[in-house]
């Protein structure tokens, strides 16, 4: 079944065991679409409004301008025998969730989530990789239970991104204007992370490798088992705060360089642990409060110009703790090595 540029509509079940060529038109499936052979999406749109299954023998061939669209107003099941490789993906669902089973998805270009009323894609235990940009509007969700979510390009979201236990990697700029849930996995941001809305770090690790910006409207919610980690190489990192940042455990495994805090205080409810090979946490005129133990390995330092440094629990340091004119308070045992 083929067309060059015409549209196609399949209102009932469509079982493709042969050749299906969308061309540059739009093919819409409102019933179940099952592909066991060859589906070619030239520069057109495959708009799937019902369940979608592709067996391990079901080839799905795309070109740069093609689109796989999740549509309709109800839940969908996407059952795959192997990873799906679309060129671009969008969602216009209103509402409903497309839930993946058996295989993940690697998107060569962009993902656009434009649905309304609580629409989304749930990758469950399967992986998502996006090579291009990701744009998510309000009310759209990309989530998983344990599947890894990898965003290579820039991400701008007023929707929700999260996972129960899966890891998340943002290799491009991540602008969170919606909800970001780290869960119990590790979320890594090698490029700038800007939070103007809600970031929840359940029992996981938020590993910030470059700049981190939290506006006055940017909530950062943690539990007693979460970690804010400064990582990466010798590159300097700037943490720009418009209010006090309340974390649980704060640590650093940087291999050198500075972490400079501007604009607001840093409050670690639990431990502060600097075990990198030479990191300097520079508080400037901002206060640092550590609720429990502080441990500084050799070549690591905590400093301020006039910011108050408060260590409530035991502090042990083979590094440096210094200030120019700020006060320091050690409420627990202080072992200076």
Description:
By secondary structure, this protein is an all-beta fold. The strands form 5 sheets. A 16-stranded parallel sheet has the order 1-4-7-10-12-15-18-21-24-27-30-33-36-39-42-45, with no helix packed on it. A 12-stranded parallel sheet has the order 14-17-20-23-26-29-32-35-38-41-44-47, with no helix packed on it. The chain has an 11-stranded parallel sheet with strand order 2-5-8-11-13-16-19-22-25-28-31, with no helix packed on it. The model has no long low-confidence stretch (mean pLDDT about 95).
Taking pLDDT < 50 over at least 5 consecutive residues as the criterion, the unreliable ranges are none
Q: What structural class do you assign from the helix and strand content?
A: mainly beta
- Rg from C-alpha positions? 24 Å
What is the overall shape?
A: elongated
| Count of runs of 4 or more consecutive helical residues | 0
N-end to C-end Cα span: 76 Å
The percent range for helix content is under 10%
User: How much is the average pLDDT?
Assistant: 96
Q: Strand share of the residues?
A: over 45%
Give the biggest beta sheet.
Answer: 16 strands, parallel
* Widest β-sheet, arrangement of strands: 1-4-7-10-12-15-18-21-24-27-30-33-36-39-42-45
Q: How many strand units?
A: 47
Summarize the entry for a quick read.
This protein is an all-beta fold and 337 residues long. A 16-stranded parallel beta sheet has the order 1-4-7-10-12-15-18-21-24-27-30-33-36-39-42-45, with no helix packed on it.
